[in-house]
């Protein structure tokens, strides 16, 4: 534990969708002085994301769906192009991403490779995201995907050339951080 933090107090501000907590604590600064600080942290659980790639076709599978937070922050139609992702719930990261892949994209993967993990917004969100890649081919398609109706998911599945997806990052069509990171990983490691 960090000995520069003490007297942590937590107050639940909201637990309507996920949990928003307010933390009050003392932090010892570089001069050795204790300072009282307050921060809010949103706890939505941890998640996993995956980039599906097809080496022979040089393609990747992405999704497009409506994301309210982007809409209220200026994304004109609220639609966001992303890698498949989901919250872990009670699953380990690998089991989670295999389940989410099938639900969202319609592809059933037998094996995936974890490539790294990262905090995506550490100033306000507790989530750590586990990043995976997985090779797909047409024989692995078991449904049209699109997400779960009971989770109100309306997901469009996109198959794009990796070069096209990289260009979409450069021209601003792809603005999702996890997706950009995995596309760059695929490009750097010559996955397709």
From the helix content, strand content and strand pairing, which structural class follows? alpha+beta
Number of helices: 4
Total beta strands:
10
Uncertain regions: pLDDT < 50 for 5+ in a row? none
Mean pLDDT: 94
What are the secondary-structure elements, in order, as H or E? EEEEEHEEHEEEHH
Q: Give the proportion of residues in helices.
A: 10-25%
- Biggest sheet, open or closed, and with what strands and sense? 7 strands, mixed
- Global shape: elongated
Radius of gyration: 19 Å
Q: How much of the sequence is in beta strands?
A: 35-45%
Distance between the termini: 42 Å
Throw out a few tags for this protein:
three-stranded antiparallel beta sheet; 4 helices; alpha+beta; 20% helix; single chain; seven-stranded mixed beta sheet; 10 strands; 192 residues
Any chance you could write out the topology, listing elements then pairs?
Layout: E1 5-14, E2 19-28, E3 34-43, E4 47-54, E5 59-66, H1 68-71, E6 79-82, E7 84-87, H2 93-105, E8 113-119, E9 128-135, E10 156-161, H3 162-170, H4 177-188
Helix pairs in contact: 3-4
